[in-house]
Amino acid sequence: MKLDSHRPDFAVQARRQNLEGLNWVNLLRLPNPFSFDEALLLCPVSADEWLVWIPDHGEAILNIRQFSY
Fold this sequence. Notes:
Blueprint: H1 13-16, E1 24-27, E2 38-46, E3 49-54, E4 58-63, E5 67-68
Antiparallel strand pairs: 1-2, 1-5, 2-3, 3-4
């Protein structure tokens, strides 16, 4: 299933443009010592937070200041 973030009623559509086309981001701090240092962007949850999937950790909500692209 693909998320349609281009719908006009999508809550945080204006902020998403900065990360358009990116799938993976680098984590600035690991959530646990065994997790990967990258996260897959799943969908935005607010203007400055994203739901991500981190290998060997699982899903997490990260602030955009917690990763780099």
